[in-house]
Amino acid sequence: MDVGFIGLGHMGSGMARCLLKAGHRLKVYNRSRDKAEKLAAEGAVVVDRPGDACRGDAVITMLADDGAVEGVTFGEGNILASLGQNTVHVSMSTISVALSDRLSQAHGKAGRAYIAAPVFGRPDAAAAGKLFIVAAGPAKTVARCQPLFDAMGQKTFELGEKPSAANLVKLSGNFLITVVIESLGETVALTRKAGIDPHKFLDILTSSLFAAPIYKTYGGIIADQKFEPAGFKMTLGFKDNRLALAAAEALAVPLPLASQIHDHFLTAIAQGHGDRDWSALAQLAAENAGLGDGHATPRA
Ligand code: NAP
Description:
Helices cover about 50% and strands about 10% of the residues. By secondary structure, it is of the alpha/beta class. Keywords: NAD, Oxidoreductase.
């Protein structure tokens, strides 16, 4: 298929490579051009404006946040003004429910196709074509994009006609991940302060009742205290926490844990952890336990 790809960060670069490897023809755009140039050697055509990537079968956006997606979608030279009659805009970033609804309405009004397809999986899964994709929008349009999802993901979940439902599922999933990170951070601090090796502690848990990928992945990062380089930046994790709270407020659903974790994110960012992996939330639990920088020796 002929595909435009906009946003070649940690996730987008791996996803675009998977599409190229599967034989799709790519036009790529990235705000900082150097990241796009890296893909030119692998067969992608680098374009100067988002609108230049919008005349094929589909254009995928994989950008940081609402502001970035709004910025490349609306206005002259951007996606909506340039989208071909048969080109689908596939929004794969983690964005708000409200923006997804607005995108759906704006594309509908312009007679253009829009679906949401946010993903679960970190950059290593994106590079390996092993993402989990949650797709929502008109069934025929989702089906047209399936070859692209097959190249980027190990499984696609279809969620019905309303695109923003996929965004809400994604935000809910990320809220669950923050609860896992927070509870892992607290229990690792507890056991470490008592002198128990965190790797041993996590080995017991993930070999028994907690044998889920999420505990293995984040348990490993937290036990190793390897929060850099970030696979998913703290500031982006904070963005998703705020978007989950906004969606919950709109539906009048209290999320007391998310509210508490909101303040933990703020503390972590205020203390200079904003560019580290979001699992550095565990560092706060360690510091609150007097474990200094998370090291095994308690502060006197
Ligand atoms: P990232 O590495 O920070 O990349 C962000 C991308 O957005 C870059 O291409 C960046 O361009 C672009 N961008 C940021 N602000 C922009 C703006 N105002 N205008 C135009 N482009 C802009 O982020 P990522 O980790 O790839 O995440 C991308 C999306 O996937 C996010 O919505 C994130 O929540 C979601 N996600 C991430 C993960 C993960 O584990 N990392 C997993 C699932 C979903 P520059 O290169 O010029 O900065």
